[in-house]
Amino acid sequence: MPNPRRHPVGAEFVAPGLASFRVWAPAHTAVQVEVDAVITAMQSEPGGYFVAEIPAAPGARYGFRLGDDPFLYPDPASSWQPEGPEAPSALVDLSRFEWRDLGWKGISLPGQVLYEMHVGTFTTEGTWRAAEAQLPALRDLGVTVVQMMPIAEFAGTFGWGYDGVQWFAPMHTYGAPDDFQHFVDTAHQLGLAVILDVVYNHLGPAGNFLPKFSPHYFSDAYANEWGDALNFDGPSSEGMRELVLANVDYWVREFHVDGFRLDATQQIFDESAEHILAAIARVARDAAVLKSVILIAEHEPQHARLMRPVTEGGYGLDGVFNEDLHHSIRVALTGIRDAYLSDYSGRSREWLAAVQSGFLFQGQYYPWQSGTRGAPALDRGPHQFVAFLENHDQVANLASGLRLIDVASPAWWRAMAALLALGPWTPMLFQGQEWGSRVPFRYFADHEAALQRLVHSGRREFVSQFARCAFMAADLTQPEDFIGRPVFEASRLDERPAASQRLWQMHQDLFRLRREDPSLGQNAPRLLGATLNEEALALRFVGGAPADERLLIVNLSPDLNVAAISEPLCAPPEGCHWSVLWCSEDPRYGGGGLAACTPPRIVMATGHATTVYRPAAPSS
To answer: 277 versus 456: which is more confidently predicted?
Structure first.
């Protein structure tokens, strides 16, 4: 009788010195597994599967021979590719790792602060061990969730990770699989969660051998933005569905990850009774057993269906990225209204709408796409909208990779950083943003020459939608200059500020306010808002004791006297006046100082700043 397996596909140890191999290859009648040059015929099982049990040791190299094809193919569910995705797979005993996080209960989305990290550029070393050394600083900053850009094995030695081809194998240039296990375990010891950015909408163009095992992994029924669509609902789609769901289960069980960020879900096509996104959420929660996990989606149309419960016809995810808010803030801070930024005003009415309703487009006409955008989302909680000033895409999409602080007024940047941190949504930082890093982040890839030229051409075409980028795309005619190793090396964070650095301190103070203040962030029982002018927003956090009420003013216009504005949200609680609790123009953060206040008649909202007020009793 075969020994019990933990996962339906891949290679794993089922007893000391005994490895089990299972692969889906319905395109073939015979499959052999080769382990350290020893070839064994595999037994066929119903549904196109092949299985074998062979004595082996951790580290042994193996692969599959398909029919009469002489090539040794790596395992589609390999746990480690030490020499890359086109070389033999390596056996790994993931159960040997000694976890210290048995008391870790996982996370839910409310109250979290996300931090997007690219392992290859987060440190000069570009490894999990080096990134792990920085986790205490992220904890001290106030971050609670590390969102890792894709780590699945991809071709080449550097890249963003969105062209992964070995979904189960942590990228070998970042370290061994147990290095990633150690990273997650250490994060949990520090009170940090770790979620993975996973790409279930396409596979990379190099090192992808799935078609050799079965043509049914892919579908020609849908047009996919990045190549062949994955087959989740067509004939023989069970193999691809199982590969994805086994991968979800694998990361949760073997690496103790706390959830997923699902890339470009608008390019995941499925008409099945259970949509693959709903199935992913179900499997992830089942795999976590007694631990809570979170699932967040990137979904360009921004449909609330993804985050509605399955019982209400949704997919049961926890949140969706709010790109509308990012676009509005970028227009406000930079004045750029090109391409997909063209339908945003960058005015305070948009910030207020994002506070109150989440997405700005919920079915209205969207001129950039010559059609409607979004769907009603008014029933969703504010924490379900993930907000950000920067992420990997939005920094890199303007080709130069300049950070927002490089192209915006530093004062306005600080003001919007405060709105991000103290708003009712779930905030996310991009690596280095916490100290105002000016290290650029551009798109980079490492392919063989012919494919690199094609990728280079596609990237140049994409960024040229921005008029400001056309000159750069025209000048950088060589792939190496536009997306090659120099670009990768220039994107590394080669600086680490002291905790006393001004902007780092500002973010730490903001996240402490968000966490500890009884009304700010998601703590307020009730949140009201109003625009004071086209560049000023007032938010009133109410519902608790009068002493706990807060007034937040985002003011990108000159100094405003909120004591004399005909807006009732600016009136202090009865018997009180407003006193400044926090301001982004505080000299401690590099600001120019606060406007003078002499309440009750003069309560200034400092110009080009965000100011938070609390009630104070009049002096006797």
So the answer is: 277
